[in-house]
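Entry 14. Structure prediction run on the chain below.
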Amino acid sequence: MNFRTAAKVALAAVCAVAFSACNDLQQILQPDPPQSGGEIAVGVVMSITGDGASAGERELNGMELAREEVNSSQLAGMSIRFIIEDSESDPTVAVEAFNKLIHEDNVSVILGPGFSSSARVAFPIAQENQVVALSPSAGAAGLGAIGDYVFRIPTPANVYSRSLIQQTKEKLGYQRVAAIFDNADFFSQSGHDEAVKALEELGVDLAAVEPFETGETDFTGHLNNIKNANPDAIIVSTRPVERVAIPIQARELGIPDTIPLIVLGFSSAHVELAGDAAEGIITGSTWSKHADSPGNQAFIQNYRAKYGVEPDGFAAGGYTTVQVLAAALRDAGSTDSAAIRDALAAIDTPTIAGQFTFDSNGDPNTPVFITIVENGDLRILD
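Output returned:
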C-alpha cells in the first residue's frame, strides 16, 4: 500500500469519528497536478494581423496577464505555456493554425479564435480531434452546439442581442428603429438577426434595414436612408472597425445624438477611437469595469500597470478565458483533453466577469451589462 492509499484509508477512519477534522486532510489528497513537469502547452489562435488585430492584441494582453498570475501562484503546481498562432483575421488561416497545433504541437487545449466566422470553421476541427477549444470573443449564435469540446466566454448572440434589445426598449421606450449591419460577417449577421427577432416580439417597427458588405468604408448612403426614415434608435451590428466608423459618419451627417446608437460589442477602446461621436452610444457586455465582481479592480490596476492603457471588454475576455481554463485544469488534475472538457462543463468559479458556469452547449451563464458612454466612459445604464 503506497502513502496516498494509506492516507486515504486513514482519512476515512478519522472522518467517521470527527467529521470537522477532515478539511485539511482532504486538501492534501486533492487530485495530482498535471504531469510533464507541471507544465501544459496551450495553443492560442488569435488575430495578430488583419482587420481584427487591434482586438486580438488586447485579448492576447489579457491572456498573458492572467497566464503570468496563474504561473506565479503555482496553482495546483502547474504552469501554462502558450504556443501562439496568428489567424490573420482569416477563417482559412485559423483552420490551418488549429491543424498545426493539434497535429504538430499535440496540444490538448486551444484558446481562440476570436472571430465568430473563424470559430465556425475551426471549432469542428477541434471537435473532430477531441481537443478543447475555448474562445474569448466568438459570440455568434449556435457555435456552442458544434460539439462538447467547444466553449466560449462571451454571451452568445441569441441571448446577448435579445437582452440588449429588451433592456434598452424598457429604458428608452423606442417604437421605431433602424438597423445597419454587415451581412457578410457571421457575428454581425447573427447579432442583427437575433435583435430583429426581439424587436418583432416587442412590437417595435423596423423603419429601415441597411445591410452592407465587409470592407465598405463609406456608409453615407446607408446612413442617409436611415436618417430619412426618422427612427427613434439605430441598431448597429458590425465587425470591430466599423463600430467606430459608423458612429463618426452618422454624427457628421447630422443624425442627432437624441437618436441613440445601440452598437453591439462597443468597447472602451472604441470609445477612445470614436471620440465625441461615441457619446450616448449604448451597448452590452459580459464585463464592466464598474462591476464589483471578484478581482475586477485588481485586474484593471494590473493591466494598466503592465500595458500602460485601460483594459476593455476584449482584454477582459482574454483574461477571463485563462481564469476559467486555470480553474478547469485545477479541477481536472490532468492535461488530458477529455478530463479538461469535463472540468469545463462542470466549472463553477469566480472570475472578473462574475461567477462563471457553462450551459449544456458550452455557452456561459453570465448576465449582460447594459452600458452607455457618458463623458468618455462606459457606465452601467441606470
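The first strand starts at residue 39 and ends at 46.
Filed with the rest of this week's runs.
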